[in-house]
Records
---
Amino acid sequence: MNRPNKKNAPKSSTGASKNKKSANTTFRPRSGSPATAKKYAKPISKEPLPDLNKEEIRLNKFLSNAGIASRREADVLIQAGNVTVNGEIVTELGYKIKPTDVVKYDGATIKSEKKQYVLLNKPKDFITTMDDPFGRKTVMSLVRKACKERVYPVGRLDRETTGVLLFTNDGDLAKRLTHPKHQVRKIYHVELERPFLHTDMEKLRTGIHLDDGMIKCDQAEYVKNGRSSEVGVEIHSGKNRIVRRIFEKLGYTVVKLDRVQFACLTKKDLSRGMYRHLTEQEIAFLKMI
């Protein structure tokens, strides 16, 4: 039998195409609207969350899935000897656990949990904490029935501030959304005790010196169809009481403060004190940040 002569076979043209640079460049979008997320979002994986009954996974990922900490923080806990597997302390990074392994953190057994993402329209007079020794109302009482998994607030809103507040047991995502380098946008509706001066509006945009450093709003303008005492500000800083402190520095008293947007999440169609679960599109967008 005669075999084909490879030397005489036509050469593929794919090699040349590989050397050509694409004329199209994909840009990573900034935090914005769900419409932007739909345009740029990667297809949502249909793969299930890691299941200890089916496969081995890294110990730090298991801790993150359980909502204990982000993967990086979990590595610190592991190296510190705070985690045991089958009664033995494990300090090896990259260690994988088996379906039958019993994992404990600080003596408590950890079970793999499904990731949950809950959005609350926070009302006044609730503090953002897991529990309060003084018996004050906490935001946890408002989302207690949202899911069987224990979720945690991402960031915080002070007692008198209302609006968008996200809860999740996804440690990695929570870490990303609160880290300053990701500059997650937050939009607030601010109501003051007196009209806000145009000269002070310019100060919001150029910057104001506070005790902990310089701060400026990414955007600031009067609320459309609102009074001159109502201002909308966009800011990415997550410092404690930052919006209230900015206006106090300018000599104003904040009467009402409402967070209307956090990343791509808004309180649209969500009544005060109510919660809802995020859509797959919203979750995909947050993971792109």
---
Amino acid sequence: MKTPDRLKPLLDEGLIDAVQRQLMSGKEAQVYVVQSGGETVCAKVYKEANNRSFRQAVDYTENRKTKNSRQARAMAKGTKFGRQAMEAAWQSAEVDALYRLAAAGVRVPRPINFHEGVLLMELVCDANGDAAPRLNDMSFTPEEARAHHATLIREVVRMLAAGVVHGDLSEFNILVGADGPVIIDLPQAVDAAGNNHASAMLERDVANLRHYFGRFAPELLKTDFGREIWALYEKGLLSPETVLTGQFAQVLKPVDLGQVLAVIDDAKDEEAARRLRMTEAR
């Protein structure tokens, strides 16, 4: 096929040898099958921000840091340079998450390289050596559904133990490889300890798994792994070896109104200080 313009720099640099075909086009990127060093791999080409249907919601970008103070100020002001910096940070978030999770043993594609807005990574294949299908394109027996659900819950735990929440996990971004499910699409992954929305995102990720696999194994609809996992994480009791029950009993406590108001006051003070720093930096 004709080499897409965005892949030409990788050919010029010798990072890829040939482009075989387009594998898919999603809301945030186009994925191609390419040859690299004698290996068949994927090249994920991120779409420009104005061509994506998925927006960088503040819930996802909260607490993402940049070491460059000029970039930080530009991102806060929303200048053209700032928007470019935010785009670069958005793309690198997936790269960082992939390397972090692969090192932790999470079932994600093996990252290979990142160059000019293109991520090279392992091509996940099925038992026949073809590109693995997405979870939503398959159907399962109750036994298979329970097994895949258990595998993915373990991977969610392994991710959280590594400090990461996927943030958009569903049947649409899980591949079924020859040896089981593989989690993909991580540009919206968040730091579990640094994002105030992490717990809600994790519960939503787990709920998506429950609802999908519950279509094949209805007993899974009665489970509550999400809140159980987060409660153990908050207490420092979660590890990849933790045995889960799928049950959660919430203990309700009286609201400390004074503490709530104190948190609100602290937030107001932090915002006032941030605005003052921005004013002084101009």
---
Amino acid sequence: MTRTAMMTLACGAVAIAAGAAVANDNSNLIYNPGFEEVNPDNPALPMGWGGFNVSADDYVDINDPGAHVRSGSKSIRLRPSTGPSTAFQGFTTNVFRPDGSDLYDPDYVYLGGDVHVSGWYLVPEGETLANDLVALKLEFRREPPNFSIYAAWEFPVDVSATNGQWHYFEVTVTDEDMLAVGDFPPYATSVTILPLRFFGGNYATDPLPQGTIYWDDLCYIQGDLPQGCNAADIAEPFDVLDLADISAFVSGFTAQDPVADIAEPFGVWDLADISAFVGAFLEGCP
């Protein structure tokens, strides 16, 4: 099984039950990862998320003119800054739950396994991201009421045009990365998920930011990814090649999901993927 397929399965993009594809997000610790649940107290934001210098229409609905949504009916977007008030923009999980008992930041166990964050982004056809930082930031925070950041990593997105298609991304922070930060207790106990844009230039003299980015279907897990005996073993029960694997591959291939993108060229679902799956399936598990 490819690494991308393992991550996709862990995040519940494709699961098979009774011969049909069903959602299975038990491993995903992000609350409202697809932005479907609207905050009843502030309909301009998804539940479990806060916004930095974003507009109400940056919480995108599928019925909005020109909207881009990967699944369900909602997504979020970050448009190019046009002035100092939007030099920094973002959406964050670092907001309190309604009862004030905790933050929506997903939990983290210090040195309890590598952290994997994945999701999808889209740049509309004819647009290209340019002249600013567009990234996913992970802020590893100490236990409230401290809230301080123990360590943080920024992962810039590939600024190449996506031609209006959803593009899969995946980033990892390993235990070794965390150890390299140093030993500064108290240790981090949660992670802020922060898709962002930042322009640090001069609006009067520097090239201005370009392009809009949409985000959807984010996922955060900590620990080992599910394993299979080979590239065709993409559905439970693992270490057994059966109809569940065939159904999962067909569903993934039809939906152009990474779980079925198992052969080069990656990012393209073609005969090479079908041939690789059939070959691995016929080879069987050891």
